[in-house]
Amino acid sequence: MTGERGMTGAAETRPILETSGLGKTFGGARRLLGGRAPTVQAVRDVTLSVAPGETLGIVGESGCGKSTLARMLVGLVPPSQGRITLEGKTLGEATKAGPRAFGRTIQYVFQDPASALNPRKTIRRILEAPLVHLLEADAPARERRVAELMDLVSLRPEFLERYPHEFSGGQAQRIGIARALAAEPRILVLDEPVSALDVSIQAQVLNLLSDLRARLGLTYLFISHDLAVVEAIAERVAVMYFGRVVETGPVEDVFRAPRHPYTRLLLSSAPTIGARAAAADAPQAELPDPTRPPPGCAFAGRCPNVRDDCRTSPPPLVPMGPGRAAACIHPLPADDADVPA
Amino acid sequence: MKPAAAPAPVEAPVDALDAPPRKRERRSFLRLLLRNRLAGVGLVVLSAIVAVAILAPILPLADPNATAPANRLLPPLTPGHLLGTDELGRDLLSRLVWGTRLSLSMGVAATLVAALVGSTIGLVAGYAGGRLDNALMRSIDMLMAFPYILLALAIVAVLGPGLLNALYAVAVVNIPFFARNIRGVTVGLAHKDFVESARLAGMGHGRILVSEILPNVMPVIVITMSTTVGWMILETAGLSFLGLGSQPPQADLGSILGEGRKVMLTAPHVTTIAGVTIFLVVMSINLVGDGVRDALDPRLSAGALARPSAVTRIARPKSEGADAAAAPTGDHALAVRRLSTRFEIGARVLRAVEDVSFTIRRGECLGLVGESGSGKSVTALSLLGLVPSPPGVIRSGRVWRAGEDVLSLPREKLRALRGGRVSYIFQDPLGTLHPLFSVGDQLVEAIRAHRPASHAEAWTQAVALLERVRIPAAADRAEALPHELSGGMRQRVAIAMALANEPDLIIADEPTTALDVTVQAQILALLDELRREHGLALLFITHDFGVVSQLCDRVAVMYAGRIVEEGPTAEVLAAPAHPYTRRLIACVPILGSGRRALDAIPGLPPAVDALPDGCAFAPRCPRATGACREGEIPPISVADGRAARCLYAGEVMREAREGSAA
Amino acid sequence: MHLYIAKRVAALVPILFGLTLIVFFIMALIPGDPALAILGAYATPDNVARLNAQLGLDQPLPVQYVTWLTNLLQGDLGRSYSLNRPVLDEVLERFSATAILAGAALVLCTIFGLLAGIVSAVRQYGLADKAVTLAVLVGISMPSFWLGLLLILLFAVELRWLPASGMYAIYGGGDLPDLLRHLILPAVTLAAVATGVVARLTRSAMLEVLRQDYIRTARAKGLPERRVIYVHAFKAALVSIIPVIGIQAGFVLGGAVYIETVFQWPGIGRMLVQAISTRDILLVQGGVLVVAASYVLINLLVDVLQSLVDPRVKT
Predict the structure, then answer these.
(1) Which residue has the higher pLDDT, A97 or C165?
(2) A282 pLDDT more than 90
(3) Average pLDDT estimate for B80-94
(4) CA angle A198, A202, A208 (to 5 degrees)
(5) Who among A133, A197, A200 is closest to B201 (CB)?
(6) What is the torsional sign of CA C288, C294, C295, C296?
(7) Does the pLDDT at position B293 exceed 70?
(8) Residue A169 — pLDDT band, cuts 50, 70, 90?
């Protein structure tokens, strides 16, 4: 690990995090009376790369696999296929490398701050756990680091002896962020970090995250269902649907002129101030049955541009313009400059 | 502490860099326990019994096993033998004290053994999951295939009668009870985020089990122990009563009772004394056990289990201001005047809704916007008396509809109004539809509660309603249970139910918050279309300005239980007149504005049980002056149909219009 | 529905097989030589060896088990040495007496437990609720064997309303009214604890359900309060009440041991206690097996009942 760290200085443009062909299949266990339980492929063939210091937004609706992807990246869920490369070091190649192997480089911030903190531990003990187990720091070093962390997330040091239930949602999320930062990771996976918070508090936490990224040179994977939040914080975005990445590219470009029809649907569904409600697509349009995925494009059933060849095999993610890619055989025109409202 | 179903009026979600965490009174366990008065009584009785049992060796008692045939079966209150003697002339008082000592220690020992073994099995099975869990729990199921006491008998049959063997038998039959309880709790905890964050902190499985999960399971173990120890004393006593437990001359309470049975007709005092003692021991333990459960299980405390009544308690002052008491004129679907709803929990009074007035015109959509804890949902529920009481009370105000005050209607007329002329759509369609009835049946019920129709007629109408909310294959879907439908489909069912009796007002409480954006867009479009088609008025409660802007003609913004601003949607959004509205709109990231820092509101909303004087937003407001912090601030009209509770409303609105300090 | 029942019945096979294994091996673990116990004073080494061979006890345990199981499947549970009659005959005769007693107690505890629980939930904190809570507390803290003695003293000895013991009157008994007269006291005693448990659980299940959002929906759509409580809430509460009634079936089957002893009821519990003290292993084995098997069947019924109330469990 130390050798790798030494090299990063020389090759700073090299991705800090890469995944290739990453997939996760749940279920399929053998049953008592023969046969197998149905399998669900939650994530399929995800290939991503993230540059140091970058924020990659991952957007999608519930059931699209974004949380499973996030959990694989930090080692909470072992991948079924593919591999994860962290700072040039490959992990998780169908291995059982647990979070210990990941913890010093990549950490995770949970959606619900209240449930991510053990109700029976003081804030100090919560913050010390990674210092003890990942860094094996001694008592004075821990004391110093804990004080530093509280300062980083702008909480008063005397809160350290309090218990989680005494804090509001926004404060608890700050503690969650401090815990994630304790072992000085270089990457944070933020899984819907503000969606459990009210808007006024959401803004505080988003601003804190931007600030921390600048100060500590962090890399973020920011997972959210809220396109506006992703737009405010991320440089690049990956749109997920039914376990696959269907479109990636710089946030501005993708949101201004989406190439995948699903991205366009998402953009037009987001309620925006000043627009009238309009039926976005047919009501029967729902996700396909995950235990019996369709042979072709999973979005075909809802797609206004669907043609026969969409239903034969899943379309691969192909490059479309500078830094962009979309998994669509009949993409929207590149010059479609206006997002339909 | 939360009143059921009320949207968190106790803790408004607060945040601030500097705000200290809300200090909560840390009450001692004993005080919590003694809040249950019966538990207090139990504790006193139990302490006395335990003290006597512990002190038995040093108390001036006769030898419990010294026989004296000459003194057999003396009645109670005989000099020298306070409780009399048994058929061998042994002193009953002494035997009773020593027997109690034995019974208590047997029960406690059996409980400890069962708790230790059962909890370990439960913890390991629940945390490990998979095959180990399966194997362990199948074995436990096998034990449970035997009727409880029968298994104890079989074990005693194997080991032979005797005190220790009875103890083992009782402990073994109680292991499944602990294992199942503890496993259930552990399974729930094993996938909690805080356990995963412990893994991310590099902790191993053993350490996580001991230092993360066990402390959270401990209360359940203690509750289970305190509620089973009484049982175990009864069971060991029972085995001794049958002659399978303690063997002569040693005697626990069960064997004293068993021996006394032989002379029951001539000397009933022996069985009576032993029976009463067992009863007192077990009952005091059960009382304390219930107290322990209530003290450790916060769900049960503070009357959280209180049954909400059919209609909110209404306790309004006899004379109210003329503006509330007179029926408003004009063409309205509903007019609310000076409504105040409070949650009264003991001495605490949470002012969830305070002095709220608004009017919904016919066919109009009014948006009620606010953050969680602002009182918007409580307002919606108050309109037809659906706030759970206890602890909710409507303390003042009128809800006018068709010249009548809805809150003064007799129950039957109020019932007819609910789901009739005025209907509701709630947030989470899985929790708000009955899980065991088909959606068709639930629609049929809604129809037949308001007009006479046969089941078949109503069913046809139900299917037609489902078609009207564009549910494909409506006739088939009507047979489905709620959990068999997707979230979007369930919300369509809820809308169909709201439409069932051709209402003229629908109150929709965050109906799309639980849904994905694409589904939300569909539902909003459907609501909008239906509303226009039928000329319905709509009260739409949400936290999302985007949704309000798409759907609502007018908007009212709530903060800390009050409406702070009201007006036509487009105007309010373009130029808010209250600083809170303005800052709240600025917080919301808007699609299409690129990467940027967002405006945030510093400070935290006040707790609704400790509202400051004057404007509740003043502590967070950059414009606040001394005048803002005293006295009631009434709504101030700033334009036609617009008002805001701000002393500087006019200025705020002008500034916003001019676009200064964006 | 039929598929679900078929599946549940199929799942019984391994459970029943497991039961036979446990029962057989528990009994095989019993220390001491059964032949010694049987022969008593006549035990010479020769006699003991001959008897052991005759009983098959000189074979290895698995072989003994297979033999025992084969016999079992043919309805042969061996011969009780203390009673000198086939175990199966004795066990079935005794079991029918227990089934009458336990069945009556189960019916009583279900009816009164549900009623008391509902009344107490609907009138929460009212007089009825307090009375029920107190009665429940007394019920579950009362040793049933002492309660039985008290009832005998009161209703049989003092008031002479009901017989103190037995199942039928020795002279001129044997008809149904006679059985019922004998049944009242033991059934009530046996049901006391279980009624308390059912009432307590019904109360808390009803209160829990009445706080659910779908109850608010039911009220919001204008259903009469009667329908909200007795249809919507009660049906949902049944989902947690039914399994507890199943557990009570186990309690009354087991608890019958005490009651049968106190009331001299000729049931299987009293038989077991006697068999344990005389170390009549085959009789204990047969008795335990039959009671356990009947409990397994009761649990099957409970599961089927549960699936009728809650269609979600079928999947």
Answers:
(1) C165
(2) no
(3) 83
(4) 155
(5) A133
(6) positive
(7) yes
(8) confident
Q: How far apart are CA B542 and CA B519, in angstroms?
A: 16
**Beta carbons of C221 and B155 less than 8 Å apart:** no
| Cβ separation B282–C143 shorter than 8 A | yes
Beta-carbon contacts below 8 Å between A and B: 238
What percent of chain B is predicted at pLDDT more than 90? Answer: 47
CB contact under 8 A, B520 and A252: no
pLDDT at residue C41, as a whole number: 65
Enumerate the residues of chain A whose CB falls inside 8 A of the CB of residue B526. 279, 283
ipTM of the complex, rounded to two decimals:
0.86
Residue-wise pLDDT for B301-351, tens only, equals 444 567 778 889 998 887 665 555 677 777 889 999 999 999 988 788 889
Q: pLDDT-based confidence at A3, cuts 50/70/90?
A: very low
Chain B's closest residue to C229, CA to CA, is: B310
Residue A93 has pLDDT above 60, yes or no: no
Using an 8 Å CB-CB cutoff, list chain C residues near B500.
Answer: 221
- pLDDT tens digits, B156-214: 888 888 889 999 999 999 999 999 999 999 998 988 899 999 988 888 899 999 999 99
The Cα–Cα gap between C287 and C88 comes to 9
DSSP strand pairing (C85-86 vs C79-80): antiparallel
Residues facing residue B539 across a β-bridge: B366, B507
Distance from C-alpha of B638 to C-alpha of B628, rounded to nearest angstrom: 17
Chain C within 8 Å of B135 (Cβ-Cβ)? Answer: no
**CB contact (8 A) between residue B147 and residue C254:** yes
Report the residue of chain B nearest C247, measured CA to CA: B147
Q: Using CB atoms, which chains have 3+ pairs under 8 A with A?
A: B
Could you tell me which of B90, B52, B51, B54 has the C-alpha nearest to residue B70?
A: B90
Q: Which of A198, A201, A225 sits opposite B517 (nearest CB)?
A: A225
B199/B205 Cα distance (integer angstroms): 8
> Within an 8 Å CB–CB cutoff, is residue B302 touching chain C?
no
Q: Are C290 and C135 within 8 A, CB to CB?
A: no
CB A277 to CB B17 under 8 A?
no
DSSP string, A281-330: S-TT--PPPTTS--SS-TTGGG-TT--GGGGTSPPP-EE-STT-EE--SS
C-alpha triplet B440, B443, B446: angle, nearest 5°: 155
Torsion of CA B100, B103, B109, B113, to 10 degrees: -160
Across the interface, whether the CB atoms of C217 and B432 are under 8 A apart is answered: yes
Of C137, C207, C251, the CB nearest to B305: C207
Amino acid at A109: V
pLDDT exceeding 70 applies to what percent of chain C? Answer: 93
Return the DSSP state at B20. Answer: P
- Tokens standing for B297? 């299980």
Token duo for residue A79: 């991948």
What is the pTM assigned to this prediction? Answer: 0.85
For C174-221, write each residue's pLDDT tens digit.
Answer: 788 888 888 999 999 999 989 999 999 999 899 889 988 999 999 999
Choose the closest CB to C254 out of B149, B158, B415. B149
The average confidence (pLDDT) of chain B is 86
